[in-house]
Amino acid sequence: MNIICNKNILNEAISSVSKAVSSHSNFPILEGILLKADIEGTLTFVSNDMEMGIEAKTEARVIKPGKTVLNAKMLGNIIKNLPEDEVYIETNEINFCTIKSGNAKFEIMGLNPLDFPELPQVDPEYSIKVKSSSLREMISKTIFCTSLSESKPILKGCLVEIEGSTIRMVATDCFRIAVRTYHLDSEYPEKRFIVPAKTLGEITKIIKDGDDLVEINCTSKNAVFLFENYKIVTRLIEGEFPKYKSAIYNDAEIEFKCPLYELFDSVYRASLIINGNSNDAPVKMKIKDNNINISCETIIGNVDDNISVETGTADLLIGFFNEFLLDVLRACDDEEIRLQFKKDFNPVIMTPIEGDEYLYLLLPKKLK
Q1: Is the pLDDT of residue 1 over 80?
Q2: How far apart are the C-alpha atoms of 79 and 85, rounded to whole Å?
């Protein structure tokens, strides 16, 4: 292989595909990036950690086609620190690689590309198209509610539901539920699948805002996301996602509008005196007499704040983990949101004043 390519183009491609490189593997080949150059002038970068794979294509001056595998971390550091914009890369028949730019020259040993695992071929049983901006927002506004626990792998992903022209993304960690809903330009058959949060997080780092369409193809085992010059392939999480709809009640006893930013700022101020384990210091909300009293008490001290809101005949004292509450409030979009409560130990539901674009449910903390 013998190519010439721009340093910035190489940097972007290497940085993107490195997100699917195994950092600590028993197989050195999985810590590498496959580089393939074809005679048409396309340079392809591929990474694969056996759970997720990323392919990026870019243009290059291909003097001689070929392929090799180079250690991702070393390659990234070398390209990032080269002195000139033009980069010359050449490999021989034993995968010995020479990288030159300006007066700098590196010689490193590559790996046999025949040992690199190919990305799964996903012949789509199901295919939809979503605007990149919609997909990006759906992910970023739900992924924080996925679980980090290895004991419940089904909760380490987001459920994707398609019903007609509606796509819905759902995440839960058993303490919170996040639901984001968008309307598609076309009608599609019903479909449900669970995408690992790790894959979705990496997609948000690569995908750009805009009206460009992302094609999502999936089988029962895998899904592939196609956009711009990228292909991201992932294994789907198998199993039954929790029946989240049964937790969303429709018979709220207390319901009122609340200014989002005032509520967020008040909860944030109450969080300032929490130093250490927030489990021992819930943020309390006392809703009564057209007022929300936000308070918190710790061994350091206490804080008391108030928001004037038309709460009707509500009379409720409820507490939340401050970080969980702040996460949910950050994800809401509007200047005003609707809060719904039932008395006793029941979750709060937050929705827009109009429409169904989002819904967040948060379990309270039992107060002493």
Answers
A1: yes
A2: 10
**For the stretch 341-366, what's the b/e string if a residue is b when 16 or more beta carbons lie within 10 angstroms of its beta carbon?**
bbeeebbbbbbbeeeebbbbbbbbbe
Q: Report the number of secondary-structure helices (H) and strands (E) in the chain.
A: 6, 23
In angstroms, the CA 255 to CA 240 distance is 32
3-state secondary structure of 310: coil
Q: Is 79:9 a contact under the CB 8 Å cutoff?
A: no
Chain position carrying tokens 């012949």: 123
Q: What is the β-pairing status of strands 315-320 and 254-259?
A: unpaired
Q: Are 230 and 135 in contact (CB under 8 A)?
A: no
How many CB atoms lie under 10 A from the CB of residue 86? Answer: 13
**Six-digit token pair at 25?**
């593997």
How far is C-alpha 342 from the geometric centre of its chain's CA atoms?
Answer: 31
8 Å CB contact between 97 and 109: yes
Q: What is the pLDDT of residues 208-224, one digit of tens each?
A: 888 899 999 999 999 99
Quote the crossing angle between the two packed helices 7-17 and 72-80, to the nearest 10°: 150
The candidate with the shortest Cα–Cα distance to 32, out of 60, 4, 6, 70, is 70
The amino acid sitting at 339 is L
Pairing of strands 302-308, 291-297: antiparallel
The per-residue pLDDT for range 101-150, each reduced to its tens digit, is 999 999 999 999 999 999 988 888 899 999 999 999 999 999 999 999 88
Instruction: Name the residue with tokens 């207390």.
Output: 254
Say what the pTM is.
Answer: 0.93
- Cα-Cα-Cα-Cα dihedral sign, residues 7, 12, 14, 15: positive
Task: Report the C-alpha gap between 215 and 224 in whole angstroms.
Answer: 8
Could you read off the pLDDT of 275-320 as tens digits, one per residue? 876 567 899 999 999 999 999 999 889 999 999 999 999 999 999 9
